[in-house]
Amino acid sequence: MQNRDVTLTPGTKVDRKKLPIWLSRLEGPQTVGSGPGFWSLFVVALIVAALYPLFANDYAVGNTAYFMVWTFMAMGLGVVWGYAGALSFGQTAFFGLSGYAYGVLTINFGSAYGFTLLSLLLAVALGALFALLIGYFMFFGRIRGVFIGIVTLSVTLVLEAFMAQTAGPQWAIGSARLNGFNGMSGMPPLTIPWFDGPILLYAGTSLYYVLLGLVLFCYLGLRMLLNAPFGNVLVAIRENPERAEMLGYDIRIYQMLAFTLGGALAGLSGVLYTAWGQYITPSSMGLMSAALPIVWVAVGGRSDITATLIGSLLVLATFQSLTIYGSQYALVVMGALLLFTVLVTPNGLVLEAMHAIRRLTGGRGQ
To answer: Topologically, how does it sit relative to the membrane (predicted)?
Structure first.
């Protein structure tokens, strides 16, 4: 039975029964981290992140914004793989589809009156709808285990091959040329309508703060969702799908919904990536692009959303440093890191570190 009392300071406690149910689900059995120690560290990290642009140059801030773009796909994969137990190699399919959709919409209709924000929502919805369709056929077709990885990898490679051959002038949607292997470019950045003119979110401080807010919103929202009955059922399916089914849960629906959520988050990454760089190419759906999110999530720790988020940021920063100072070794190091994680710390390096800190502090601020 879980203790429903939350200690804030020695001698004072808050009864979680008195909190709104959605707020009480920020902590729970499916996420690591609870109590005043954890949330104090969380607030400190948030303050440091908020102050970071004041002390860093524009290049570093733009790069950090780039790292945050990918965290949505990592968190979505964490839900699909770490919680629902379905290893997907195809998150880049939803990433690329939503990115191209954003490009087609904004090139054709422009960015006036905040249309880029509407395009973001429509493109993410398209990625989620495609994930729902793929998930329906996979899970209601009783595809399980390694075959989910094979099917999803096939989907993203087929999409890459299709988009790579769209070089001719006949491959255009309205004014938007798909441009084959060279990819689509020229779409506007995200814009926020404002009284004295729209705010253009180029790769810089403004986009950094918008992405920081989005990461915070998605992270806290996922904590609440995963500590709700939905998350409990996902973990039950991961641990023993036959038992979960015998208890009366239609595991196909839960896995399909988790896969759709992962597809929507991957689509959000795709749109933000396209708006950040104002281009997208078929290689974003290729084999290497499909494999890297697996490394981020595995190294961080797939069974906890906090470990997934922290691990993804660390691996992304490491990978970019390697590509700058030793590009010939970057993928080799990533492969070695994945191998080390699988053999030595299968639960993930960051998650193991979090458990070690918990043991050292005697369980305070878990």
So the answer is: Multi-pass membrane protein
Distances (CA, A) of 97 to 86, 166, 168: 21, 14, 19
Name the helix (H) or strand (E) containing 185: strand 184-185
* pLDDT for residue 359: 84
**154 to 85, 89, 90, 150, 295: CA distances (angstroms):** 19, 9, 8, 6, 19
Do the beta carbons of residue 261 and residue 288 sit within 8 Å?
Answer: no
Q: What is the largest CA-CA distance in the chain?
A: 72
Instruction: Show Cβ contacts of residue 61 under 8 Å, excluding neighbours closer than 6 positions.
Output: 52, 53, 204, 205, 208
3-state helix, strand, coil in the chain (%, to 5): 70, 5, 25
Q: Are strands 172-173 and 176-177 parallel, antiparallel or unpaired?
A: antiparallel
* The predicted structure's pLDDT at residue 9: 42
What is the structure's pLDDT at 327? Answer: 67
106, with CB counted inside 10 A (0-12, 13-18, 19+), is: buried
Q: How far apart are CA 167 and CA 170, in angstroms?
A: 8
Which two tokens mark 244?
Answer: 């979960």
Residues of the chain scoring pLDDT < 50: 1-12, 365
- How many Å apart are CA 44 and CA 22, to the nearest integer? 23
Give residue-wise pLDDT tens across range 307-339: 999 999 999 999 888 887 766 688 888 889 989
pLDDT at 127: 97
Residue 156 · residue 241 · CB < 8 Å: no
DSSP 3-state of 357: helix
Give dist(CA 144, CA 138) in Å, integer: 8
User: How many other C-beta atoms lie within 10 A of the C-beta of residue 59?
Assistant: 10
Answering whether pTM is above 0.85, one says yes
pLDDT recorded at residue 10: 43
Query: What are the residues facing 191 on neighbouring strands?
Result: 200
Cα 119 from Cα 105, distance rounded (Å)? 6
pLDDT at res. 109: 93
Amino acid at 100: Y
Collapse the DSSP code of 348 into the 3-class scheme (helix H, G, I; strand E, B; otherwise coil) and give the result: coil
